[in-house]
C-alpha cells in the first residue's frame, strides 16, 4: 500500500507534534510569514521536494510551505539526524516524508529519490545531495524544476563547483550566503548546538579542558567563542593565513594539528574538508581524547583510520564509541563522526532556525514568483529579503533601531567636496 510516506513508526506522531508545537512558539518570524502565506497562497499547486535534517524546526518550515499551498515531500539530509517522532508527526499532517534515523547509505539515496518522485517544481537542499542526485541520476526531472535553494556552506561550495564545470542546469539560491543566515546560524547556532551535542553525549565538564577547533570559518569561530565562554583553553588550527591571524588576534592559540593533537582533550572539526584528523594524529593523542565533527559530512575525522588503528571498539554511551588503541589509550568518537549537534542533540536553537528557515521560506516564494527569469547558476538572495527577516526578528525581540534622516541619507549618497 502506498501510504505516501515511509517513517520508522507512525504511532510516534503525538510526541513529534509536541516538539513541533514547542519550537513554533519561539519562531515568530516564520510564524508571521506563515500567516501571510495562508492568505496569499504563493505556492498554490506547486510541489516542493526538500532534503533537510528532519527535526522539529524543519517540520515547522515544511508545515509553513504547506500553508502556502505547496505539496511537500521530504527526505533526510543525513542518515543519522532524523527524529523519528517528528517524521511521524509530519506524515500525519500530509507531508510525504521518507526518512528515519539510521538509514543505510543505500536507503538514504532511495529516500531522496522517493521525495523526488513527486516531480518537484522547487527543491530545498542542505548539503546539495538532492541537487547532485537530480543532475546525475534523475536528469529527466530537471526540466520541470524552476529552481532550488541551498542551506549550508558545504552545499554552496559543491554548487559553485558544478557551476564552474558548466554542470548546473537550474538556478539555485544560496540561502547560506545571506547575512541573516551565516552570521547567526553558522556562528551562534553551531556555536551553541555543537556544545549542546558534546555535553549531552558525554556529560563531561568543558571548563579547564584543552579544546582544539579545526577551521576558523563562521562555524569554527562560533565553536571557539563558546568554548572560551565555557572556560576551556582553546586552540585553533587553520590552513588559511588570514583566518589563522584572525584567530590569533581573537586571542586563541594557533598551531598545526600535528602539535594540537598531543595536547587536546576535545577535538571539534569545522573545516568542510576531508582528513583533518587522521592516523598520524590518533597515534599521539592523549588517553581519553574526545573527537567530534561539526562539518556537514562525516569525512573530517577519518573514521577509517580510527577503525584500523583500534584494537577494540565498543559503544559506551548512546552517542559515544570507544576506540581502544593497541597501546591501551582510548579515544572517544561522538555521533560516528557525523554532525554532532544534530546526531547527539536537537540541532540549532529554535530562535536561530527561525531566521534560517524564514529565509528559506522567502527564497522558495521568490523562486516561485521569479525563478523562471533566473539563469542556471548560484544566486544570492536579494538584500531586501535579508533585511526583511532582520527587521521582523528585531521587532519580535522588542528591539527598535534608528532611521536615517533625509539629510543623513543625502550626505552618505553625495561625493562632491
Ligand atoms: N536544524 C535543521 N537544519 C539544521 C542545520 N542545517 N543545522 C543545525 N540545525 C538544523
Verbal overview:
It is a single chain. Helix 1 (13-24) crosses helix 3 (56-67), helix 2 packs parallel to helix 3 and helix 15 (350-370) runs antiparallel to helix 16 (383-396). This protein folds into two domains: 10-181 and 348-396, Adenosylhomocysteinase-like (Rossmann fold), CATH 3.40.50.1480; 189-343, Rossmann fold (3-Layer(aba) Sandwich), CATH 3.40.50. The protein is 45% helix and 17% strand. By secondary structure, the chain is an alpha/beta fold. The longest helix has 24 residues, at 179-202. The strands form two sheets. An eight-stranded mixed sheet has the order 9-8-7-10-11-14-13-12, with helices on both faces. The mean pLDDT is 97. The chain is built from 17 helices and 15 strands. The chain has helices at 13-24, 28-40, 56-67, 84-92, 105-116, 129-136, 153-164, 179-202, 218-229, 241-249, 257-263, 279-282, 303-309, 340-343, 350-370, 383-396, 406-413, and strands spanning 47-52, 71-76, 96-98, 122-125, 147-150, 171-174, 210-214, 233-237, 253-254, 266-269, 290-293, 310-317, 320-325, 330-334, 377-379. It binds adenine. Residues 52-53, 55, 57-58, 126, 151-152, 193, 341-342, 347-348, 353 line the site of adenine.
